[in-house]
Structures are given as structure tokens and as C-alpha cells.
Amino acid sequence: MSESLEPTAGQPDGSESQAPKVVAGIIIILGLFSNSLIVAAVIGFRRMKTTTNYLLVNVAAADITTLLFTAMHLIPIKGPFPNGALGSFLCKFIRTNNITMVTLLVSTLTLTVLAADRYQAMVKPLKISWRLKIEKIGYVLAVIWLIAMASVSPLFVSVDQRPSINNTLCSPGDDHAAMKVYIYCLVTLLTLIPFLGIAFCYSRIISGLYFGQTICSRGSEAMAEKKRLVIVLMVLTVVFFIAFVPYGVAVVLQFSGMATRNVEELRIFSRFRIAVQYLTLLNCSLNPFIYAIPSSNYRYCFKCMLKKMCCQGITEEVNAIQLDTRRGVADER
């Protein structure tokens, strides 16, 4: 989130409590560890290599990026702010933490693709040509990241270090009207449209599973697994939007200037922005628990990896994971 209203250097922080930074550090470390386990499980265990799991890995990669750049963002800059290319880089990527906008968009688009893929697999199972195949998943993930980076590129181009009276500001420049229009469109289109698409997909899936009985499975266990997967993905999506919407609101308020018209409003907005930052960090750290804890396959992978990390040794082969290919989370396409 851009911090064009705050100086980039020379801010005294000795009187501030270090407790919030310690809490943030704990959340970041937990998030990096848990998301890394998700990535390692899918990469290291052959039967975990499914389209659904690869999409979840993309969410984990976005969360890891968010946590890493936020950690660097929280490190205070001592002394005068650097000039030249280094100062410009710090403004664009670290000080303003604009990379978080990219990763949030990546998560939004990935969750949208996940919902569409589940809709296609469960509601329209006969249209095989439309289904996302494992061979194409790499291209899909690359397109998601390219779209996210292209969408945020105007922000990276415009934000730069700009001299102030007593310090240096990281500011998007003087064309405030154009920047406000861009931010409004970005936040609205990349929040509202994905939300409507996801809501449509899951509403049709829920209708087919619980009401219309149009989604069938071979046996009650397979049906229960499908329902469990849909619930997990829905919870993951709802939790993400709970964290993402306040972030979008904070960005809109900051660039519109509505929250900074006087000292009191600025103080309230600063507290709100800090709360939003913690909410984003919590979301990134809790995501792995949301979709890993209900899955016996992920739990088994975690158990194996943790035992290896603790030097206890694992004699089971990777292929020994008892993974029912009929399960939605392990649908081999």
C-alpha cells in the first residue's frame, strides 16, 4: 500500500512500542513456514501434483511474496533516504509495499480460476475440452502473474521519490485525478467481477450438491469428499475477501484524500491502515491451515516432511500416499 502521505526517512520510532512489530514478525515467520510446507508437499509428492493443488501452490507463492516484502517494508530506514536508482527501487517496491497489490491480485485471480475449474469439473463434467488440464497449468499460472503485474504497472511507473521540504516522500506524482480513476477502476474491477464470478460458480455447485442433486459421485465417500473440498475452497475465498476488501478500501481512501483532510482523520486512517496490514498478514499465514488441515493427504505429507526435518527418517516411499484419485483435491484430470 502506498504511503505517499508519510516521510520515508527520519521518523522517530524510539517511543513506539515494539510489541506490534514482534507480533508481525511472529505472524510472518509462521506464514513463511506454513506456506513453504504447502509448496514442498505438492512439489515433493508425486500424487499431490494435481491442477487444484497447483492452484493452491500459486496462492501460497503469492502469500510468501507478500510476507517477504512486508517484512522488508517493516524494517525502518535509518538516516537519509537513498537517492538515485536505489531510492527509486525502495520507493516502488519496499517503502510503499506496492508488490502486495500484485500478490493480492494473483490470489484473487487464482481463486477465481479455482472456482471456475470446480464448476466445470462438477457441474459440467461432460465438457472435457473446457477443463483445466495438468499440462496447461503452468501457462495459466504465468498468465495470472502477468495480468496482475500489468494491472499494477501504472502504480510502479508513477510512484517515485519526490523531495519535500524536510524529507523525501514516495509519491505517485502530481496527476492525482488520473491516479484516483485508475485506483477506483483497479479495486472495483478486480474485487467486484471476481467476487461475482466466484459467487456464481459456488452457488451452482452448492445447488447441484445439496438441492438439485445434479452432481453425482461413485459412492457416498466420494460425494462427501467433493462436499468437503467445496466447503474448504469457499472458506478460503471468503476469508480472503474479508482481508482483501478492507485493503482495497484503504487504498481508495488514501489516494482519494478523503481520509487525510485533517490531523484527526489522518490519525484514524493510520490506525485503520495498520489494522488492514495485520489482517493481510494473518490471511497469508492462515491460508495453509484452511486448506491443509481438513485434508488427510496434506497432513500425511506434512508428517513425512516434519519427521525428515527432525532427523527421524522416513522409510515410506512417496508413492505410498493413500490418495483416492476420485477425491476432488486429487483429481488427476
TrEMBL record:
Superkingdom in the source lineage: Eukaryota
Localization per record: Membrane
Keyword annotations: G-protein coupled receptor, Membrane, Receptor, Transducer, Transmembrane, Transmembrane helix
Stored InterPro entries: GPCR_Rhodpsn, GPCR_Rhodpsn_7TM
Record domain G-protein coupled receptors family 1 profile: where: 34-291
A GO cellular component entry from the record: plasma membrane
Species, as recorded: Pocillopora meandrina
Protein family per UniProt: Belongs to the G-protein coupled receptor 1 family.
GO molecular function, one term: G protein-coupled receptor activity
Stated name of the protein: G-protein coupled receptors family 1 profile domain-containing protein
TM stretches of this protein: 22-43, 55-77, 97-116, 137-157, 181-202, 229-255
Bilayer topology: Multi-pass membrane protein
